[in-house]
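Structure tokens please, single chain.
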Amino acid sequence: MSLILVGLSHRTAPIELREQVDFSTRDVARAVRELAGRRATDECVILSTCNRVEIYAVAEPGTARPAIGRFVAEYHGLATDRLDPHLYLQLDAAATRHLFRVAGGLDSLVVGEPQILGQVKQAYQVAVDAHATGPLLNRLFHCALSAGKRVRAETGIGEGAVSVSYAALSLARKIFGELSGLTALIVGAGEMAKLTATHLRSQHVGEIAVASRRLASATALANRVDGSAIPWSEIGRVLERADVIVTATGASDPVLRLDRVQAVMRTRRNRPLFIIDLGVPRDVEPSAGELEQVFLYNIDDLQGIVSESMTRRGHQVERADAIVVDEVDKFIAWVRSRNAVPTVVALRQRFEEIRRAELQRLEAKLGALSPEARARVDDVTRLIVEKLLLTPTEQLKSVSDEAMIVAYADALNRLFSLAADKKAETDTESEVAS
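Here you go.
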């Protein structure tokens, strides 16, 4: 059995295909249970985000890849030949490194994006709840989450704005400090407006009003961010009390001209007005930004901030990768130590058999002892066995070279005539290897 990763991502598949195989919209818990029920894997976790679908499994490499590919295709009603060209396969150390980089935000469309670590944690928890994981994936995902946290804590890879809408909010916080309690007006209801409105809601803005030429579109976006939709004709009354205005209409002419902004500022009594113009062409007349207490930024201004942030993040990637390498090495050493577990278990069983046999042989002499004294003899002999086994057990588990592990195990089997049980209980193996 090997650790296997089968998946597709923004690096290998177009967005249309990624949307079709998105498990998060089709009951990922049921999908995990169904995959586990097919017996193609011993353990499995499904990680599904907007940019990737990856299945981590413990299985036979030769059969798992096609079986998992078929499962994904059948679950989503796709032909396997449409899906197969976009799938990638990674094994053991490569699969481990990939997951640790994913958890650290190093394999994201936007390097360092913060949501992925939570998504990895949620995917693992869903699999645990479905009883689809075991010793290997449990250890793998705990280590992956630890690696992701280290990357966040020890590098600046998550710092700075990496999207235009997030850059806009960063500027707004410099002007207002906390955004909670402020009033925001979103003019437009397209994708850029939706993303910015979502960021505003995450900052606990007090009120979000949405205006669009199509009231239905404004209503849909307002419902999404717990805001209120207003008719296009009533923008003026909201302008007077808004603190933050976001425009993203795609209109051919400005929707906010200088004279209108001037009129609004006369009623505001020097309260600052922050305007984010995401329109191309521009939605706000540029001269409005020259007014006192008006802070106007267009999409070019914001793109410059994003580029600077991405450059700073790029400098942190090398440090983050070094952390990943360190965490991968620790996990691989643990995996290799598991190869020694059957021998360790058999060695302990052999010594315990000898201990019990000797106590039974001395039964006649021990019969005169009180129950307390006999219990003490049992404890002492067990402690002696544990101390005798401590050093060889630790030495065997610390060997990182697989060939050396095999050599040591073979020597112990010959020296002590061990009958290592190849089907030792998983719980016992996990306990010894931990």
